[in-house]
Amino acid sequence: MDLLSSRISVMAESATVAMNLKSSELKAMGVDIINLSVGEPDFPTPQYIKDAAIKAMEQNYTFYSPVQGYPDLVQAIIKKLKSDNQLEYQPSQILVTVGAKHAIANAILALVDEGDEVIVPAPYWVSYMEQVRLANGVNVVINTGLDTGYKITAEMLAKAITPKTKALILCSPSNPTGAVYSYNELKLLANVLIKHPRIMVIADEIYEHISFVGKHSSMAQFPEMKDRVVLVNGVSKAFAMTGWRIGYLAAPQWLTKACNKLQGQITTGACSIAQKAAVAALNGDLTLVESMRLAFLRRRDLMMNWMNKIDGIICNIPDGAFYVFPDISSFFGKSDGVFTINNSDDMALYLLENAHIATVAGSGFGNDNCIRIAYATDDQQLDIAMNRMQSALLRLK
Ligand code: PMP
Ligand code: GLU
């Protein structure tokens, strides 16, 4: 429609959201689809968190909340950042958002002017580049591969920086590769960034609690960097609360204030009831979070067994999150006699139609040789899905 703004016309649809919808539509039509497309825990939200939401409704937390978020949630976030990450923040540095996705959008829109460059390591999560485009910024992609474990090195970062660089988006643990930056790897990147004081870092730490390699490290932990980091996190993944839509950012005060102004004109405060649930989540202990992490670890191993067993696939071992990102390019040019696979979109479509499993093409994540498989589904379903995938791939000659 020619009435649409150019900013919307050039924007790509979210590949993860689109595949999730397609999978739900096929399911509703009675097709036995196993949905490994969207990244969300299959566990229900823990009962003590639901109880807090019920109590919030009963206590009439049904009015607008402050744009920043309720003070008790802001305090719970500060406490969490201190105890989990050894980071000190003032309330004026915290903003509660409608999911972490919204926190990232706030930060990008508050920082990026037309022509500003944002460094995005690939494979990247589907929404970063589109949000930068929305702000009329320029994405500078650093491609990474299996050789560096899908992580950028200090040299790669230094090479990508120009006088126009405004920000770096760093996601660890990574969606889609599961790569996790260690403290020492972050330090090497910080050493580069310290020489460029006008570059901000958007640190997407939404998978912090789903790590299989020990304690999470954050770019904000380096004192010289702390005032240049927008730390993004939320309750979606760790507490199985994707539908509640509560995220947050912690940043220097000037930036949090700008994001607050933006949010005051676009969404106002996040859902009042969900915020009270998030207070219970963050103030509770991490027992259930740990049991979910252990389930994801078991499934990671189950998936890696399959990745090693299925011919023609190469896959890194993910150190966190709940995705595998196998390279399926050895199938390019092959056909089942009806359909020829030429790229990752073809493969995702082939698997959807012929194995009835929904995955997401790597193209949306900046690597067309791969597909993303979310393993946040029960073990039995994963085995069935991978069996089907193996059979479908065997038919490609
Ligand atoms: N960052 C990454 C890397 C993600 O995978 C997701 C997935 N939802 C988000 C941010 C957004 O999370 P939320 O549900 O809190 O908006
Ligand atoms: N972050 C999840 C994913 O990558 C949820 C969908 C989305 O928001 O992109 O699948």
Description:
- This protein is α/β, with parallel strands linked by helices.
- Helix content is 41%, strand content 13%.
- The strands form three sheets. The protein has a seven-stranded mixed sheet with strand order 2-8-7-6-5-3-4, sandwiched between helices. It has a three-stranded antiparallel sheet with strand order 9-12-11.
- The chain is globular.
- It starts with 5 loop residues before the first helix and ends with a helix.
- The mean pLDDT is 97.
- The structure holds 4'-deoxy-4'-aminopyridoxal-5'-phosphate (PMP) and glutamic acid.
Q: In a nutshell, what does this entry contain?
A:
This protein has two domains: 6-44 and 288-394, Aspartate Aminotransferase, domain 1; 63-283, Type I PLP-dependent aspartate aminotransferase-like (Major domain) (Aspartate Aminotransferase, domain 2, 3-Layer(aba) Sandwich). It is α/β, with parallel strands linked by helices and 397 residues long.
